[in-house]
Amino acid sequence: MARPDTSPTGPAATDPTTGTSLGHVLDLVRQAIPPIHRGGRPLVLGAAGITLLTRTLLRRVGLRRTGGVVGRFGLAGTAATALFFRAPARVAPATRNAVVAAADGLIALVDEAVPPIELGLEPGPRPRVSVFLSLLDVHVQRVPVEGVVTKIAYRPGTFLSADLDKASEDNERNSMLIAAPAGEVVVTQIAGLLARRIVCDLKPGAAAHLGSTYGLIRFGSRVDVYLPVGTEIVVRPGQRTIGGETLLAVLDGTPT
């Protein structure tokens, strides 16, 4: 009786998930290195370009050693800039009516406060979670709740340290109101001591998908999330958050 053919032929032999082809290796590299948010790409390219140009000019005038030093420091600076603007993939919880952290960082406040007045909402206080982002945290912001963007309001201001309580009122900020099936949620990007640019990619009428990226704040910042009155917050000050994944609360849809 003929023996079955066990030679490595057919689809199994060419399956990229079981081989060590170049394409498979590149896929592993892409998964390990997070992409750069488009708002940070000009800065990363600019840092790389300035480094290359300066190194080339120094070497051409005979300062090869100085050019080498500049090249190494410039490369380190470019890598640090790319790291700052990284936008790693995140998986939002499957919990119905979930509200997740809008940013990576440290929870500075869990309290009640009046949402930014420029949104035109009722002036009463609402539950608020404030997350402070250090220079080492991912600075991309993520949509905290599934819904539709109904209003976006930008307000210029000062550049106090973002970990101060009054930074929520005095600093430059950009607020977004999201209408979710179980209530309205406000997320506010607040510039910090070093921040000079807030980026928001969504516009009124756009769909807001839970955990998806929607903007960033360049160099030091804070993000506040305001929840419907009566919402029970499940995080505490001092806890670290992962943007798009850490559960802040579950909306119950009770009218307020």
Q: What structural category arises from helix and sheet content? A: alpha+beta
- Tally of structural domains: 2
In sequence order, what are the helices and strands, one letter per element? HHHHEEEEEHEEEEEEEE
Counted beta strands = 13
Trace the largest sheet across and list its strands.
9-5-6-7-11-3-2-12
Main sheet overview: 8 strands, antiparallel
Residues in β-strands, percent: 25-35%
- Through-space gap between termini: 78 Å
Fraction of residues in helix: 10-25%
What is the CATH class of the largest domain?
Answer: Mainly Beta
Q: What's the overall geometry?
A: elongated
Helical stretch tally: 5
Low-confidence stretches: 1-19
Question: Mean pLDDT, as a whole number?
Answer: 81
Q: Supply Rg.
A: 23 Å
If you had to describe this structure to a student in words, what would you say it looks like?
The strands form three sheets. An eight-stranded antiparallel sheet has the order 9-5-6-7-11-3-2-12, with no helix packed on it. The protein has a three-stranded antiparallel sheet with strand order 4-10-8, with no helix packed on it. It is α+β, with helices and mostly antiparallel strands and 256 residues long. A hairpin with a 2-residue loop joins strand 6 and strand 7 (183-191). The model is unreliable at 1-19 (pLDDT under 50). The chain folds into two domains: 20-84; 98-250, Glucose Permease (Domain IIA). 23% of the residues lie in helices and 28% in strands. The chain is elongated and about 70 Å long.
